[in-house]
Amino acid sequence: MSMLHELLRLKEHRENKAEMAVSGCRMALAEAVQQEETARGSLVEYRHWSVEQERGMYAAVCRRVVRARDLEWLREDVLMLRVKERDLEDVLHQREKQRDEADHRLQDAREVHRLASRVKEKFIQLVEVQSEEIRLESERKEDVEMEDLYAVRKEREDWGGGGDD
């Protein structure tokens, strides 16, 4: 096997590795998108629930006589709802960042794959050119051999006057 064929095998291997990397990055991106959607859904769901909770707490306070301590507890409960909401927002932002990073890794992997494919295609062209040159050289040698055989035969015929074939 020629050196170009060996190099072509290497380029094909690199292209396959790059293709597998793209596939892995696609799966990682899909997972990151799913986690982002889950985090967004959790935040939306929690916001709806916390609004209802807050309304219920205020309604309960408005229906009865309350002490200052009850108002302080209400304020703390509402604050806890807000803290939980901020935590869920932080999780969502983290998931968005992870999705962005996964998307960038996929773009990078696609670029590596594109370059590996281009290099492989160039080597395929080189191998084809080399194969064509080898074929043409072989045909040329065959033609030269045939011409030599014809010339020898012609000389024999010329010297021998027709000789025995």
TrEMBL record:
The keyword Coiled coil applies. Residues 81-112 form a coiled coil. Gene3D superfamilies: 1.10.287.1700. InterPro entries: Flag_assembly_chemotaxis_eff (IPR053716), T3SS_YscO (IPR009929). It comes from the Bacteria. Keywords: Coiled coil. This is Type III secretion protein YscO. It comes from Pseudothauera rhizosphaerae.
